[in-house]
Amino acid sequence: MFKVLVSDPISDLGIQQLVDAPDVTVEKNTGLSEDELAAIIGDYDALLVRSQTRVTEKIMAAGTRLKVVGRAGVGVDNIDLEAATQRGIIVINAPDGNTITTCEHTFAMMMALARHIPQAYAKTIGGTWDRKSFLGVELRNKTLGVLGMGRIGSEVAKRAKAFGMNILAFDPFLTQERAEKLEVKLATVDDIIRNADFMTVHTPLTPETRHMISRPQFEVMKKGMRIINCARGGVIDEMALVEAIDEGIVAGAAFDVFESEPPQQDHPFLNHPKIIVTPHLGASTIEAQENVAIDVSEEVLHILRDEPFKNAVNMPPVAPSIMSRLQPYFSLGEKLGSFAAQITKNQAIHEIHVDYAGDLSDIDTLPLTRYIVKGVLAHHLGSEVNIVNCMHLAKNREVNVAVSTAPKSKGFTNLLTVTLKTSENEERLVAGTLLNGYGERIVQLNKFPVDIAPEGHQILISHNDKPGIIGQVGTLLGKNDVNIASMQVGRKIIGGEAIMILTVDKGVQKEVLNELTTIPELNSAVEIVLS
Ligand SMILES: NC(=O)c1ccc[n+]([C@@H]2O[C@H](COP(=O)([O-])OP(=O)(O)OC[C@H]3O[C@@H](n4cnc5c(N)ncnc54)[C@H](O)[C@@H]3O)[C@@H](O)[C@H]2O)c1
Ligand SMILES: O=C(O)CC[C@@H](O)C(=O)O
């Protein structure tokens, strides 16, 4: 039974599928301190959060069973991604579910700012009928600068068009072609600062976007600009903004997010007559909260059940069309990696080389490479390794991962070849294919062509091709109660080097393997276990 902890308020309807899952128990425990969460997280397989819970290194370290942290929303700045990746904890988010809601909040803020609605409301309910202090501005014919034209920025731009605004947009990924399609003018940050009447930011907070609007930008800013931030606190330098408002450069600002949340009581935004604020409500609608909770619950279930998933923040995204082509190979890839590692005993691996031939040569195979690398490393590092941290662990151990492709594949429609290069300049090669109707097959071991189903217990024997060896091996295993299910022998030339692969019904004791090596002309015997 998987245990899921929900540590922030998340829509009940959205997590219903987790609650209903027969293999999952869900517990809610919100408002915990870091120490309180660290004390209990060791009991859980999954943690679901919004933006309040800080999933720190300490929480990750204490989460010894933790497979996944699910963020019901977009931003993952409350989650220590590096710590998660190192421990192989998958971090997923729900990037699409709150786009429209946050875009609408941005618009609500822009209109409230243009018409002083919060200030006028406060005065009116305070008993003052003041019709003079709140002269507003229209949005029509004004220039809106949008910094960050991702999901939310693009939706904001669409709606601004309907209000008759001209849009200047900047995003490092915004091409001229896409700008034309979105009916916005491609601009630089400088163009926006010097020309916009309203400016809204929709970027993540990164070292590059932190304080991207600060004193130097305010100094050249178009006078009277109004600024909205419903993205992340810190994109706009809060203290420099207050100065710019007080100096008359900026006419007003509307902020949903703060550099530190919640802000201190004496934060200069609070009670400033020209700044309106909301407490990080951008995503707070019934619809968005249901959407993000549904999305994240679905993904958590997939991860707990070892099924393919998308939206992992600490792994590169994969298009569904590519995923569906790669997925049938995941198990084969992991087994080839594991097989290769098991025949490379006691030698330091310095390179994992994967060659994709045939059907797999024309697509991005990185997700499959991860399964292969996991298979190789798991043999030595155990369950600590998974597809999230395997590349990181390989790099840490100075194991190079190299990939090559070839359109043709020696008569197979697809062929995966895993070669482990050791520090002693030796190579171990295992190649496999997915055969239509027959499933997974290993078709080459080092230089020998073979045909084995990669499963269960196998013994790989290397020997010299001499009469009588097969009989002696059979007798010795029989004497030790090891039943042989199938056997294959491979050699290149008569009397030369040869291999024997035996599929046996159960594990073989070390003593039996050692005894095998006492047979004359038998060079080595290694047990391979594939699950
Ligand atoms: N207030 C809220 O409650 C709330 C709700 C949802 C999202 N958000 C935040 O809103 C922001 C945008 O969310 P989204 O879903 O549109 O994300 P997104 O990833 O779709 O878009 C972000 C865009 O910012 C661009 N960008 C990155 N660096 C930039 C730079 N230096 N200059 C200009 N553009 C840059 C990226 O290229 C990307 O296109 C995120 O920070 C997210 O966390 C806030
Ligand atoms: O959980 C929230 O309400 C915050 C949502 C928002 O900041 C996000 O990044 O998705």
Name its key features.
NAD binding, D-isomer_DH_CS1, ASB_dom_sf, Rossmann fold, 531 residues, 22 strands, alpha/beta, binds nicotinamide-adenine-dinucleotide, 4 domains, elongated
Structural description of this entry:
It catalyses: (2R)-3-phosphoglycerate + NAD(+) = 3-phosphooxypyruvate + NADH + H(+); (R)-2-hydroxyglutarate + NAD(+) = 2-oxoglutarate + NADH + H(+). The protein is built from 18 helices and 22 strands. α15 crosses α16. The chain folds into four domains: 113 residues, 3-Layer(aba) Sandwich (Rossmann fold); 179 residues, NAD(P)-binding Rossmann-like Domain (Rossmann fold); 137 residues, 2-Layer Sandwich (60s Ribosomal Protein L30, Chain: A), CATH 3.30.1330.90; 77 residues, Alpha-Beta Plaits (2-Layer Sandwich). The mean pLDDT is 93. The longest helix has 19 residues. Strands 8-7-6-9-10-11-12 form a seven-stranded parallel beta sheet, sandwiched between helices. A six-stranded mixed beta sheet has the order 14-13-15-16-17-18, covered by helices on one side. With 531 residues, it is α/β, with parallel strands linked by helices.
> Strand order within the widest sheet?
8-7-6-9-10-11-12
Report the average pLDDT across residues: 93
Instruction: Report the CATH topology name of the largest domain.
Output: Rossmann fold
Unreliable parts = none
Output the CATH homologous superfamily of the largest domain. Answer: NAD(P)-binding Rossmann-like Domain
Protein name: D-3-phosphoglycerate dehydrogenase
Organism: Paenibacillus rhizosphaerae
Keywords: Amino-acid biosynthesis, NAD, Oxidoreductase, Serine biosynthesis
EC number: 1.1.1.95
